[in-house]
């Protein structure tokens, strides 16, 4: 699809550019522990700063340590001249005062209910912050929030460099090269079931792992112990025996502080399935090496309990292949942070829910408002 992009705009020195970033990053003891999303935003920032724009940066943040963007302000201050303000009202006053090539970072938008409610009053306030609007927060583009779909009604609206790249590359999964391997893992079965149904038609092979594989095992009549399942009645009749579906052939189970590897039909009632086993990864080598494109969303195991080995082994096989790989999902990128930083994959999406929804629907609310009418 054709988007209006910031690359096409003649940014003049002194222009106020309101940019929606996604700075919702993990923070521990007041420090950012994964700066992936911030790094991915920097090409847009650098382009605007170089042009002498006055950048008004807005975002949300929601983590266990609170809901302030101050750690992001401290991070950005290492590279740019940044002013931090506590509200949109304060930002309206300050946006005229910052210098060319400087950044005004506004505190967490979700502190105001108007953000989630997409209220006209809040949208109008936000719109006062810029001469033009740029969305570089693809990972929030599935939200119908004020800073995503409201502001484009009042300001000329453009996709940032990252946003445009996300859409362009994820579109490859909608009209894929073949052979095409789709890997769907993690939890949230209800969210991902529509993807399974869609990509049974688009993909040549569909590997199902993580907690969502438990539903398949359960529908096959296997014991899944105390493993997470969706709780829904078995509704996988179309997919369960489809020859395109690949399920783990061995699993790691956990009980009483100990883990062991078993076949899926050997799980006991008191055991918890926590990862895909090594034979599963070996069995995928041929499919991986034959694929021209691989799209992967969701970790294979419960990494929060320390079971990330299956995910890392699979990632190594994919990185060694000749396939173009698209990796998505916040949990997946958390497990693979070291490999991602070394550039071993074709593309790593910043999106979680946004990536899943885009792969299912081919668009998002935040994408629709940036579509070019000059096709």
Describe the structure.
With 375 residues, this protein is of the alpha/beta class. The protein folds into two domains: 6-168, Phosphoglycerate kinase, N-terminal domain (Rossmann fold, 3-Layer(aba) Sandwich), CATH 3.40.50; 174-360, Phosphoglycerate kinase, N-terminal domain (Rossmann fold), CATH 3.40.50.1260. It has 17 helices and 17 strands. It has a six-stranded parallel sheet. The termini are close together. The mean pLDDT is 92.
What is the fold's blueprint, element by element?
Blueprint: E1 16-20, E2 27-28, E3 31-32, H1 36-50, E4 54-58, H2 70-76, E5 82-85, H3 88-94, E6 103-106, H4 113-117, H5 120-127, E7 132-135, H6 146-150, E8 157-159, H7 161-170, E9 180-184, H8 189-202, E10 205-208, H9 211-219, H10 237-240, E11 245-246, E12 251-255, E13 258-262, E14 272-276, H11 278-283, H12 285-290, E15 293-297, H13 309-320, E16 324-328, H14 330-335, H15 337-341, E17 347-348, H16 353-361, H17 365-368
Parallel strand pairs: 1-4, 1-7, 4-6, 5-6, 7-8, 9-10, 9-15, 10-11, 15-16, 16-17
Antiparallel strand pairs: 2-3, 12-13, 12-14
Please outline what is shown here:
This protein is of the alpha/beta class and 375 residues long. The protein is built from 17 helices and 17 strands.
List keywords for this structure.
Rossmann fold; 6-stranded parallel beta sheet; alpha/beta; single chain; 17 helices; 375 residues; 2 domains; elongated
The stretches of 5 or more residues where confidence is low (pLDDT under 50) are none
How many domains is the backbone divided into?
A: 2
Please state the second-level CATH architecture of the largest domain: 3-Layer(aba) Sandwich
* Lateral arrangement of strands in the main beta sheet: 5-6-4-1-7-8
CATH class of the largest domain: Alpha Beta
Largest pleated sheet: 6 strands, parallel
